[in-house]
Every structure is written in structure tokens, then in C-alpha cells.
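// run 5 | inverse folding | seed 20
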């Protein structure tokens, strides 16, 4: 054994590494939720004798390998250890390779207990609890200490070879990070050092950070670099770099490539959605249907070794390694999360209710630093993660294909649905609770459908499976329903009724994720006011705020407020001539490429038509509803250097952020909206809830989200310290003090035109 070698591994991870074998098989198994699993364990433990010990912490060392875990239950008088598993459906359908893994875990705890108490033998039991019936199926095996020890040492021996390799990797990594220099020869850009130091201090004090830093300073490198430099001192296990969009992953990977030039041993893995990397789309994930699932765990050890030798595990590298070893690329990437230093992934891998990265962090007790890129997007994304909707048309489609017994339970759910909406006279009705009878019908539907798919796993496809996942998600959110969400009933035309649980404040769900990290850095060019995001996202009270000053000069951007324009709903039709004349005059003064942003497609279309009538010489291209990726790329491609024309886009849409048009590619923008969300019943529910919770209903619902979109869109104009351009804010309300205070301080607003009459409201 390597001198001074020490490595800590959980029992769960040890057994997963050395005892998993056979096929990857994702045929439908109605797996209990984490909450149901905990409740099931508690139920079994409550049935045992008084001397029964629950959740017994165990730890032992074998040749430098520190193995630790919690045995579910132990009878000291009976010398019996129990490993508890919960399930639904037919017990006989629990796969053999899964049961072998369960035995490995139980016997590992048995070996540790024999060593701890000096026992010559032990009864090892697997206890399977059927969550629907409450019945236990118990498998027992009397094991001698020698037999248990032999199995334990065999597992440890297999893992120790790998662990020694990993220990050498960690040592090399620490040395490389200690010597790592900032990757750019010219040193830090303006503002970049301030951001990097803020991230370093937050990580050192194990606090979260919300940082607003302008575009163009190199935020990605500035956030990753200090975490690498502090890696050894913080005893960091992983960095998770989380993004809202695919383009964000690309920027992160490129920054890591640059940093990796000074640290060749750095391992990076990119996680990509299953449907984007599946080699056999349309086939089920099991050994009978997919050759890359057949024998997956038998071939995984060699694939894993080849993967760590590559170090850089972007999407294409993972695919190459996976196909060379005939394993699934998607699940190989998930396995390599355990053995990588930096993971680049979408938000949902850490923040979703069933997030893999969060679950692994908790299970393995990892010390992780989390970077949340363009974190202003996290609020809406998180609301979506913890919202659910049921569609009557989907229910009807499921009922049509369901067998008779299932059709009855779905019919009962539909009757309870009808009862919820029976007295509803308005199209939209919100409520502060999920009706009890409907919730019970949901639970019954989930249970019966789960039993059906457990008995007939090959039937898990089509509208019935889709409906099952919908009701399962809805049911789980109804179990955790509280004042962070609202129950909504919407009545439309025949077959278009909906019921929904809409999350308004995701703080309750996200807070444990922030607490699980050593430090989380939420950074963006537009993430202010900080208090709003801290409240809504559930960041800890001791979260630090940092606003990095802009490197851009006031002289680079001429900002004009059109005091003679009102884009209020009642004034929109009358605003078109003034807006299009401002666009036409600016284009005549300085021909070039411009972006014009409007609050809706209807308003955009009306303004485009008005410009064509009044200024037909101005070239125009327009964002349309539901643009596909090639169409979006063609829209952006029109902004060529030395080009001329105006691109019309919707504020808050695909072209309001995430596009980079430096120099002459874009020389100005027009923003004909404050970006305020539409004033409707749903947003009024949000306002009332925000007001009751935080005392700032209007600001949290309308003002702050709206102005963020304005600043984000305007930020397309000045991308570098060499750029110069113009910004027209086409609404007199931009001159109000409470609005001006939310705009970047380096902007100097010039008021143009006389204030329009009737614009005081």
C-alpha cells in the first residue's frame, strides 16, 4: 500500500463500485420517492424490539481505506443486522443484480459490526417493505465473521487499486493548483480581479455570494480560477459549474480549457441531456433493447479507466470512450461525475427535486463549490422545476388506451377533477390548498398506475406513461404544498381544462441545495437588487453581495429617454409614429445595425408595419413566434460588420441576452417597454403572495423582473471597452427616480422630447 495513503469511501459507493454487474436496465420500476423511502425505513424500525438500534454509524479502516456508513438496523441481543429497502409492485420483479448489490451492502455492514463487537458470526437480513401493503419480505443468511471479512476485503481490494490511483491524481492536482497562474498574459482585466477576490473570500469563509459583474470582463474565468487556487486549503472535492443554456456550457468548457493548460491533470466532465446523446433513440434503456445497456456494468470498469486517462470529458470525448467500450455515453458521463474535478451541467442537475448532483453531494458528503452562471435565470427555471400541470386532453388520451381496471381509477380522478371545477364561473380560479378529495384520487391513481407498470414494464410508453409521470409529479408537489405555491384551476373550451400547482417562491426547495455546498456563487451581468434574489431563491442570511464596477465609460453609450413616448397599454397604438420616427431618424443619422425591442409580438408587428410605411428605406428583419435554431442563427447572422438595418425582437426573448455583437455588428438599440410582466390575475396572485411574504409585492413581481430585461437587452450594445453606441429608452417612465436607480450607474440619461400628455400614471 502507498505510504501515507488514506481514502474515505461510503459503503454505498464501495459496493456500487465493486458489486454492480450485468445490464443497465431502466424498464419501469415504480421507485419510491426519497421521502417515501425515509418513511418506509422509519416504519420498519418502529416495528422492532426496544433494544433495536436504528441508523447505526459505522466506520472501519482497511489498509488506508476508511469505509463508513450507517446500518439501517441492528439487534444487539440477536446479533442481526438489517438492510431495509422499499419497493412497489411485485417483489419477484426486483432484478437479480440489484438484489446482489443489496446483499453486498448488508454484508459489508455485517463485517463492520463483527469487527466492532468481536462477534464470531452474524445474521444478515434484507428487509423489503412493500409501501402499498406495508408487508415485509425478509431474506436472511447466517454469516461467519471470516466469510463476511473475506467478502469485505475483496471489495476493498478492488476499490483500493482505484483509490491509490485517485490519491495520486489528487496529489498531482493539488501541486498543479498551488502553482497555477492566471491564464492571460496581460493579467486581470478591469473588474476581473475584484470578482475573483470576492469569490475567493466567499469560499474561504464558506459563504454564498451574489455577484453582479458587467459583460466583457471574463466572469467565467474570474469565478473558476479562485476556486482552483483555493482547492487544497478548502479540501474541495468538486466544482459544479451550472448553466441555464447550452451556450453557457460552451463558454465554461472553453474557460476550463484555458485554465487546464496550466493544470494537465484537471478532470472535467460535461453532462448533456439523455435525448441529445442517445445512440439508439426510440429504444428502451435495457439489455434486451439496447446493445450499449447489455452488460453495461460488466464493461464499465475498463470504460471508466479509459475515461480518467482522457481527463477532458466533453460530450464528444465521452462518446468516443463509451462507443470504444460498448457502453452508454449518457450513463458513462454520470459515472464519471464521481471521478471528475469539475462538472459542467444544466441547473436542473443540482437544483431539481430529483437532482443527481445534489443527491451525490449529500450521499458522499462531498465538499463542493457551486458556480451558477447567468443566475438571474435560476428564479424562473426553479419555479418551473417545482410546478406541475394536468391537462384534461392528456387524461382523456390516457383513459382511451388504459385497460379496464385503470380506466376506472382514471375515471374517478376525472370525476374529482370535475367536482373541483363544478361551481367555477371564471376562467381562472386560484386557491391556497389542493382539494383533499382530489389529492386522494391523485394518490390512488399513482398507486394503481405504478402497480400496473411494475407488472407490465414493457407497457411503459405512450400517453398512459406520460400521464402517469404527470400525476406522479403533481402528487409529489401536492404533498409538499405550502404558501410558496398556488393551486390553479383554468377552464377553457371542451377538453382544454387544466389544473396546476404553480410555484411562486422556490426558496423552500432551493435552500437545502445552497446549504449543502461549501459556497455557492450566483453571478450575472444583471442580478440586482440582491435582496430580491436572496429572498426568492432562499440564499442564506449571511450571503455576501458584490457589485463589480463597469469597465465601460459613460462616453461609450449615449442614452436618450424619449419623454414624448408612452408605451402604457392605453397609449400603444398612438405611440407607433413617434417610436418609428425615432428609429428612422437615428438610422439616417448613423446607418448601421440596430436592435429594437418590444413587449410583445403584437406590438412588434405593429411597429414594424409602421416603420415600413413611414421609413421604407430602413432594412428590417424580425423575430417570429416559435423560431427554430437555424432561424435564430440566421437572425443573428444579419448583424454583420458594416451591415445596415434594424432587427425587431421581443424583450426578454432569445435575442435579449446571450448574443455577442461587438464593434460594428451592433451600434445601437431601442427599447420600447419597461419590460413589466403583464398585469393579469396570475401575476396579481404572485404580487399578493410576494407582498405577504416580503412586503414588496409590486417590486418583486413587476418592477425588478421588468427592468432586468431592459438592462439585459441594452447590454447587447457595449460589449468591449472599444465599442461605442446609442440606446433609446422609448418611454417617459424611464426618467422616474425609482426607475433610474435600477439602471446601471455608468449610464448618463439624456431626456429628449416633451413629456407626452396623460403620462403621469
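// decoded
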Amino acid at each position: 500500500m502507498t505510504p501515507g495513503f488514506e481514502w474515505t469511501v461510503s459503503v454505498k459507493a464501495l459496493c456500487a463500485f465493486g458489486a454492480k454487474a450485468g445490464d443497465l436496465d431502466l424498464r419501469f420500476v415504480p421507485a419510491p420517492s426519497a421521502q417515501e423511502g425515509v418513511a418506509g425505513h422509519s416504519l420498519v424500525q418502529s416495528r422492532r424490539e426496544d433494544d433495536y438500534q436504528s441508523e447505526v454509524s459505522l466506520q472501519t479502516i482497511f489498509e488506508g481505506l476508511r469505509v463508513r456508513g450507517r446500518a439501517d438496523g441492528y439487534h444487539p441481543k440477536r446479533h442481526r443486522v438489517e438492510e431495509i429497502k422499499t419497493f412497489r409492485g411485485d417483489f419477484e420483479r426486483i432484478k437479480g443484480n440489484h438484489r446482489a448489490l443489496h446483499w453486498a451492502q448488508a454484508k459489508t455492514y455485517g463485517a463492520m459490526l463483527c469487527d466492532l463487537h468481536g462477534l464470531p458470526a452474524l445474521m444478515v437480513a434484507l428487509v423489503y417493505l412493500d409501501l402499498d401493503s406495508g408487508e415485509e419480505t425478509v431474506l436472511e443468511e447466517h454469516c461467519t465473521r471470516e466469510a463476511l471479512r473475506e467478502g469485505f476485503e475483496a471489495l476493498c481490494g478492488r476499490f483500493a487499486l482505484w483509490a491509490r490511483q485517485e490519491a495520486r491524481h489528487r496529489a498531482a492536482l493539488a501541486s498543479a493548483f498551488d502553482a497555477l497562474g492566471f491564464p492571460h498574459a496581460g493579467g486581470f482585466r478591469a473588474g476581473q480581479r475584484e470578482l475573483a477576490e470576492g469569490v475567493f473570500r466567499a469560499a474561504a469563509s464558506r459563504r454564498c455570494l451574489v455577484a453582479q459583474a458587467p459583460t466583457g470582463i471574463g466572469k467565467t474565468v474570474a469565478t473558476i480560477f479562485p476556486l482552483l487556487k483555493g482547492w487544497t486549503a478548502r479540501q474541495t472535492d468538486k466544482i459544479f459549474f451550472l448553466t441555464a443554456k447550452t451556450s453557457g456550457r460552451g463558454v465554461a468548457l472553453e474557460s476550463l480549457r484555458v485554465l487546464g493548460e496550466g493544470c494537465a491533470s484537471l478532470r472535467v466532465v460535461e453532462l448533456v441531456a439523455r435525448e441529445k446523446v442517445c445512440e439508439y433513440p426510440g429504444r428502451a434503456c435495457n439489455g434486451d433493447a439496447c446493445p450499449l445497456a447489455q452488460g453495461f456494468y460488466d464493461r464499465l470498469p475498463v470504460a471508466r479507466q479509459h475515461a480518467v486517462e482522457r481527463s477532458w470529458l466533453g460530450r464528444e470525448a465521452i462518446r468516443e470512450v463509451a462507443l470504444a467500450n460498448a457502453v452508454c455515453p449518457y450513463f458513462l458521463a454520470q459515472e464519471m461525475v464521481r471521478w471528475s474535478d469539475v462538472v459542467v451541467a444544466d441547473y436542473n442537475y443540482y437544483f431539481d427535486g430529483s437532482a443527481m448532483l445534489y443527491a451525490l453531494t449529500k450521499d458522499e458528503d462531498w465538499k463542493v463549490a457551486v458556480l451558477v452562471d447567468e443566475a438571474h435565470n435560476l428564479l424562473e427555471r426553479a419555479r418551473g422545476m417545482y410546478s406541475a400541470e394536468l391537462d384534461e386532453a392528456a387524461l382523456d388520451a390516457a383513459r382511451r388506451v388504459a385497460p379496464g381496471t385503470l380506466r376506472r381509477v382514471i375515471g374517478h380522478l376525472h370525476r374529482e377533477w370535475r367536482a373541483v371545477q363544478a361551481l367555477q364561473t371564471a376562467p381562472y380560479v386560484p386557491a391556497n390548498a389542493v382539494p383533499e378529495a382530489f389529492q386522494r384520487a391523485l394518490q390512488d391513481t399513482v398507486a394503481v398506475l405504478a402497480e400496473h407498470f411494475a407488472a407490465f414494464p414493457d407497457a411503459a410508453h405512450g400517453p398512459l406513461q406520460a400521464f402517469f409521470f404527470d400525476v406522479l409529479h403533481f402528487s409529489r408537489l401536492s404533498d409538499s404544498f405550502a404558501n410558496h405555491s398556488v393551486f390553479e384551476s383554468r377552464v377553457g373550451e371542451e377538453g382544454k381544462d387544466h389544473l396546476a400547482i404553480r410555484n411562486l417562491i422556490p426558496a423552500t426547495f432551493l435552500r437545502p441545495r445552497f446549504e449543502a455546498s461549501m459556497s455557492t456563487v450566483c453571478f450575472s451581468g444583471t442580478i440586482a437588487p440582491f435582496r430580491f434574489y436572496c429572498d426568492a431563491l432562499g440564499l442564506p442570511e449571511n450571503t455576501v453581495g458584490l457589485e463589480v464596477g463597469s469597465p465601460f465609460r459613460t462616453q461609450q453609450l449615449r442614452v436618450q429617454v424619449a419623454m414624448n413616448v408612452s408605451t402604457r397599454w392605453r397609449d400603444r397604438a398612438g405611440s407607433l409614429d413617434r417610436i418609428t420616427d425615432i428609429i428612422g431618424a437615428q438610422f439616417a443619422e448613423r446607418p448601421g445595425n440596430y436592435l429594437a425591442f418590444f413587449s410583445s409580438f403584437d406590438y412588434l408587428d405593429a411597429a414594424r408595419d409602421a416603420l415600413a410605411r413611414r421609413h421604407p428605406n430602413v432594412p428590417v428583419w424580425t423575430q417570429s413566434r416559435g423560431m427554430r435554431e437555424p432561424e435564430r442563427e440566421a437572425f443573428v447572422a444579419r448583424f454583420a460588420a458594416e451591415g445596415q438595418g434594424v432587427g425587431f425582437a421581443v424583450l426578454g426573448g432569445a435575442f435579449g441576452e446571450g448574443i455577442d455583437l461587438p464593434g460594428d455588428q451592433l451600434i445601437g438599440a431601442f427599447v420600447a417597454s419597461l419590460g413589466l410582466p403583464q398585469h393579469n390575475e396570475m401575476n396579481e396572485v404572485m404580487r399578493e403572495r410576494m407582498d405577504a411574504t416580503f412586503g414588496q409585492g409590486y417590486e418583486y413581481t413587476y418592477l425588478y423582473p421588468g427592468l432586468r430585461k431592459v438592462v439585459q437587452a441594452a447590454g447587447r450594445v457595449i460589449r468591449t471597452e472599444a465599442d461605442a453606441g446609442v440606446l433609446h429608452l422609448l418611454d417617459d417612465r424611464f426618467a422616474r427616480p425609482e426607475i433610474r436607480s435600477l439602471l446601471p450607474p455608468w449610464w448618463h440619461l439624456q431626456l429628449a422630447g416633451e413629456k407626452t400628455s396623460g403620462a403621469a400614471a
